[in-house]
Amino acid sequence: MSHSPHNLAEAAEAAQASAYADPDEPQSPNVPSSKGQTIVGAGVLLVAGALAVGALQIPGDSGYGGVGPNFLPWVCAIVLGICGAMLIWEAQTGGFRFAADPGGNAKADILPFVWVSAGLLINAALIGSVGFIISCTICYVLATQGLRRAALQPTASSVSTWVKDVITGLLISAPVFWMFTKFLAINLPGLTETGWL
């Protein structure tokens, strides 16, 4: 039994229409309802508005090529505003199109979030006293531990994993520090005045 392309297209459209028959009904347990999707779109619009307010605070004097420093913030604000409006429109007309099941846990995993947050906060607190390299290495190690624990890696707490993460953090943060201090002549917080540590 053969189906014409026209009939297949109609069947696909009917299936999609039935999936969005009730805009308040989520597509799956992990896909938010149209109300939640509308809130996401409104949040994007709020961010766009905040960017626009920030762009108003930046002087618009034209620089090289006739473009001022407020050009990029305005572009971001406008694009985000369009995206937010489109998200709200989709949410109100049947839900986000072709929204896939996001997967993952239905509830947030707090412990990995705490690890990553601790890395960021400790980095901000220590960067002035222990320098860029050490504080960023600590941030990397703690954030990586959070991601490893979120992925349920069995070796996350092993000594070898911690050592590997410390070495990797140093290999990332030290060259970045040297590039800024030695090649770009931009001062970053360090332990010494040499620009090497």
From TrEMBL:
Organism: Comamonas testosteroni (Pseudomonas testosteroni)
Keyword field: Membrane, Transmembrane, Transmembrane helix
Domain DUF1468: 39-189
Record field: compositional bias (Low complexity): 9-21
InterPro entries in UniProt: DUF1468
Stretches for region Disordered: 1-35
Designated name of the protein: Tripartite tricarboxylate transporter TctB family protein
Entry's transmembrane regions: 39-59, 71-89, 110-143, 163-181
